[in-house]
Amino acid sequence: xxxxxxxxxxxALAFTTLWFAAxxxxxxFGVSPLRLNLGDHVRDTELTLTNQSDRPLNxxxxxxxxxxxxxGNDVTEEAGDLVLFPRITEIxxxxxxxxxxxxxxxxxxxxxxxxxxxxxxPSQAAANAPVQFTLQVSVPLFLRSGPAQxxxxxxxxxxxxxxxxxxxxxxxxxxxxxxxxxxRGVDAQGGETFRAEIPGWYLLTGTTRAFAAPVTAHQCRxxxxxxxxxxxxxxxxxxxxxxxxxxxxxxxxxxx
Length: 256
Fold this sequence. Notes:
The structure is a single chain. It contains four helices and 19 strands. By secondary structure, it is mainly beta. It folds into two domains: 23-143, Immunoglobulin-like (Sandwich), CATH 2.60.40; 152-251, Immunoglobulins (Immunoglobulin-like), CATH 2.60.40.10. Strands 1, 3, 5, 6, 8, 10 and 11 form a seven-stranded mixed sheet that branches. A hairpin with a 3-residue loop joins strand 18 (225-232) and strand 19 (236-242). The longest helix is centred in the N-terminal third of the chain and has 14 residues, at 9-22. The chain is elongated.
C-alpha cells in the first residue's frame, strides 16, 4: 500500500528531543553516493555504507518506488523490479560495505524514480536503552535512458488561506531538484509588499507542486504582482505574474 510521507512539526520536534536523549545508543554511518542512476545499458550500481560509530552496525536496505501525487507530495511503495544484495549486512567499526542494486526485467520508456532506504537494525545496547533510536537514510535512484532534458515552468501563483502559493511544473523528461524559491510581492507603484524564501525539493517528471509562504491580509491586499526566482540545480527560472486579490477576501473581511 502506498505510503504518503508526512512530517508534522510537533512530531519532528519530539523526535529531535529523543535524538539528543538517545544519541549515545544510535549508530552513525556515511552513505555514498547521495544519488544513484541506472539506464543507458547500466543495469546495476552500488551504494557504499561506512560505519562512523564506535561499535559494529547491522543495517537493512530496501528499495521503494517513488512517485508524487497531484499535490506534489511524496508517495512510496515496495519496488519489485530492483534487486538489492545483500539486504542485511554488518559493518565493523571504521569499515565500509557495499550494497549492489540491479534492475530486474526490462527498462521502462519513461524515467522511473525510486528511493533506497538504509536503516540501522536495533542492537543489544539500543534494546537495553531507556529510549530506542535507530538511524535511517534515504537515497534517490533514477532509472532512465537517452538524453535528459530538465525543464521547469512557473505554472501559476495565487493567494489562498493566508498564503501565497507558487506552482512549479516539471515539464521535462527527468527529475529536477529545486533549491531555494524566492518570492517578492510588488504593489501597483512598484514597491515591495513582502519577500519570502521557500526551501525547494525534488520535482519528478510530470509533477506540479505548490510552494507556499505565509502573507498577512495587508500584504495580500496590497500586492499587484509577484516576482519569482526559482533555483534549480542547473538553472534559475525568473517570472513576474499578475496575481488576483480574490484569495484575500476572507482574510480582509475578518480584519475589517
